[in-house]
């Protein structure tokens, strides 16, 4: 497999040698932990890539040509200096994992809702206040990590994410409890720590049918409704800050 891999991670480069364009059949390209501030458009020529790691360096932008990587499955673009993700990432039809954490993102493209094979989406450590309604079309999504943003509410369409197992919303700005998540049949872990919630809605006894962990710490909740007790009696671990 080594001949299908280019690993330049952690080598301190500030530009990419154009000679690597001559390599064919490359499936894994590691460029993380370098000093790159820009990427050449010709990275889109590596159309057999399955893994691309660009994380942890001062990149200012991602080229639109990344959308040509139709076989890409894993994309790591964390801890950069980017202000946005290109709309062309919605063309990555084979993508199963996207990590775009600890950037300066204030919004994310609606086009990502086209990633119907996406299993895990990590967007924590940004400046997001909302997510597009189109993300309700991510029907394969199992894990959604949104900690440390400024999200005020989730799209109503999230009740369509029937494969979701994990949703982490710690340290956001939620003022409305995400009732749509209570209808998800496979959701196991929900983290709502350190939000702006001061009430919980009244839900029926069938809410959160598969939930195993609900984290409500650092919320000002003077009253806890009956469905929370029902979850606890069912074996769900409930975490609350002591009064």
TrEMBL record:
A Pfam entry, by short name: LRR_8
Domain of life: Bacteria
Keywords noted in UniProt: Leucine-rich repeat, Repeat
GO CC terms, sorted: cytoplasm
InterPro entries xrefs: Leu-rich_rpt (IPR001611), Leu-rich_rpt_typical-subtyp (IPR003591), LRR_dom_sf (IPR032675), LRR_domain-containing (IPR050216)
Name of protein: Leucine Rich Repeat (LRR) protein
Originating species: Kribbella antiqua
